[in-house]
Every structure is written in structure tokens, then in C-alpha cells.
Amino acid sequence: MRKQVCIIGGGPAGLLLSQLLHRAGIDSVILERRSRDHVLSRIRAGVLERGTMRMLDEAGVGARMHREGYVHTGTYLSLQNRGFRIDFDRLVGSSVMVYGQTEVTHDLYDARDAMGGDIVDEAADVTPHDIETDRPYVTYVKDGTEHRVDCDWIAGCDGSHGVSRRSIPGHALRTFERVYPFGWLGVLSETPPVSHELIYANHSRGFALCSMRNENLSRYYIQAPADDDAANWSDDAFWDELRRRIPEDAADRLVTGPSIEKSLAPLRSFVAEPMKWGRLFLVGDAAHIVPPTGAKGLNLAVSDVHYLYHALVRHYDGDDEGVATYSETALHRVWKAIRFSWWFTTTMHRFPDQSNFDQRIQETELEVLEESETLQRHLAENYVGLPY
Ligand code: RFL
Ligand code: PHB
């Protein structure tokens, strides 16, 4: 088959890119390794920046988000069981949308299907070839038969364990990484959320986050050792630990119930440079990973898609400036989100080797934040998403 763009990976980045390209008259195919059921059952991000909302609207898939999502005009931070609010609306005149990545992915698949988009699922051995030439192609195996996609460009939207980044020669790739000595143990439960707004809690027992999906679906996380196992945690043990770490009034009204999902996610910061090599672009988690504390992963994938989409539209209009500068432009924004996520993670979590000095500095950082509108504005600006 011949396509203008071959997209590897059918997560939110790949789906959104193909949807936008289709609407601009540029044809693409998505090669996804997993089944659609698998992709649609992954529980991940929950917070959408204003730029992400705009992009979903631009792709024509924002209607259900506006109907069913929750606009949050602020968030709570807590230190040792006492919370204070950061008011995004007052500080920066903006807000975020709480709408699960699972739902975003659902809406994108529905839109792709409605437009007859080409998506190959359960594509095995997806391999990019000749990316340093003007005639790249991608091979894959489906139901035991090898297929070939000839294309102008390859978009590597295949997440952190995909094949795209590995296709860039080692001498050309530079990576930057920080691995944190803890993970997030997450629980999804069919209970009313403890708070209408998110609560990010710093506690001497470790970080906790209260989030939500809807009026009867809550998402909670607690910091746990990186080598812990979700199977070690009964629901009761999880609820007890969460209750200890969050503001007292929230702990008192927390409604608990059986978990319908429980998993441990490791935390790391990672960037691969450059994000373009020859005819291959890296997009989203394929190029960078952030710890979830700043809620930036999905949102960064969407801003990458924004830059790449406009670069490709310009290319087919005869202007190659956008494709030439994609990596530089995207990385400029990526590093700011990497910094914010690192800062927020470092400020909110307890580190195993933290000295009493480090701990006092961390507590003072949060006290200063509570007192300083300037610092709050900085946090708000980054949390709702830097403009693009
Ligand atoms: P994805 O979603 O990983 O999709 C990549 C797709 O590529 C497929 N694939 C391949 N296909 C073909 N051939 C191969 N060789 C392939 N290898 C992989 C995969 O099956 C998959 O379908 O990457 P994408 O599209 O770049 O999207 C990135 C986001 O999914 C990710 O950044 C966020 O989920 C991160 N994240 C959060 N981001 C936010 O913006 N806000 C949040 O609140 C937030 N919370 C989170 C998060 C991630 C979490 N976990 C589990 C990592 C909370 C958690 C707990
Ligand atoms: C979530 O609801 O899953 C969520 C919310 C905020 C974060 C991370 C995850 O920072």
C-alpha cells in the first residue's frame, strides 16, 4: 500500500495525528501492535490542558468531552494533612478539563471509523526502513503475512517501548534520564470522588493524589517503593494509607469501595533528542516520558502532534520549514514540561535518602508557595499548559 504518512502506534498521539491529517486531505495509515480492546482498556491520564481541548475540537472529536468532562478551575495542594487551593481561574484566567485518556482514545477511534480511517490493529514486527532516504517504507506482519507501506514520512507514535526510537542510529541519538526511587500505586473505584477538585498531598508517609473520572468513579494514587507490587496491597490497606496522607476533612469524608483496577506505575523523566531523523518523526511518549505528577504526558503528546501536523500541512503546500524545524520546536516545549514535572515531583514526594534538612526545605517550599501569589501563578501557568 502507498500512503503519504505511515503512523506507527494507535495511542492518542497516532490517532489524533491521523484524524487531523485526514481532515487536511493528507492520507495515512496507523499500524498498531495491540488489539483495539487492549488499547481501549488502558487507564491512564485524566487531566487535559486547554491546548489539548483546542486540538480535540480542531480534530472534530471534542463534543463528548465538553458534555461529559469536568472543568476544574483550581486544584488543592496539601502538606501534612492541611490543604490550600491554587485558583487557576483567578491567577491565569484558565482551567483544565478532567476527562480520561480512555475516553479521548474512544472518541478518536469512533471518529476514525466514521471517516473510514485506515487502522491496522494487531500488526506484528512493524519495522521502518530507509528512513534516511526520500523513499522510506514500513513493513509489518498481519495474520502471518508480511505487508509493506510505502510513504513520504513515518510518524513514530509508538510510546516508550516502541520500535521507532530504536530505528534512529545510536550515534545520532542523545538521551537524558532521571529515574525516581518510587512509583505510583493507582486505584480506580466506583465511589464518589472525595473532592470536586484534585488534591496533591505531600505527607511524611509519602505522596498521595485524589483524582476523579466522574460523579461515581474515583482515581486515587499513593507513592509506593518502585520495587513494590500492587498485589501486596489489599484494598483496605490502600484506603488506610490514602486516608493517612490527605487533608483531614477529606479523610473524614472519603468513601471507599472495591477497587476495579489497581496497578503500580514507575516514575521517570526521559528525553530523546533529536525528535526527527531523516523521514522519521518521534511523537509523544516515543520521544519523552514525564512522571505523572504534572499531568503532562498526554498533553505533551498532543502538542507534538500540533507541531507535526502543521509541519506536514506546510510540506504538502510546498514549504519544508516546518518539517526541518519540528524537532527543535517540539523539544523547546518538551523541556519546559520536563522541568515542571520534575519540580512538582521533587516537591511533592518523599525521597528515601532525604535528610532532615532536605525535608525542611521541601516543607518550606510548600509554605512559600501557599503565601506567594507569584509562585502560585507560575504553578498555575504551567499546570494549565504553556501556550502553543
Ligand atoms: P501511548 O499511549 O503509549 O501509545 C503508543 C501506542 O503504540 C503502540 N505500540 C506499537 N505499535 C506498533 N508497533 C510497535 N512496535 C509498537 N509499540 C507500541 C502501543 O500499543 C500504543 O497503543 O503513547 P502516546 O500516544 O504518545 O500517548 C502518551 C500518553 O499515553 C501518556 O503520556 C500518558 O498516559 C501519561 N500520563 C498522563 N498524561 C497526562 O497528560 N495527564 C495525566 O494525568 C497522566 N496521568 C499518565 C498518567 C500515565 C500513567 N501511566 C500508567 C504510565 C497516569 C499514569 C498512571
Ligand atoms: C489521573 O486522574 O489519573 C491523574 C490526574 C492528575 C495527575 C496524574 C493522573 O497529575
TrEMBL record:
Residues 4-341 form the FAD-binding domain. One of its GO terms (biological process) is benzoate catabolic process. InterPro entries: FAD-bd, FAD/NAD-bd_sf, HB_mOase, RIFMO-like. One of its GO terms (molecular function) is 4-hydroxybenzoate 3-monooxygenase activity. Keywords: FAD, Flavoprotein, Monooxygenase, Oxidoreductase. Pfam families: FAD_binding_3. This is p-hydroxybenzoate 3-monooxygenase. It comes from Tranquillimonas rosea.
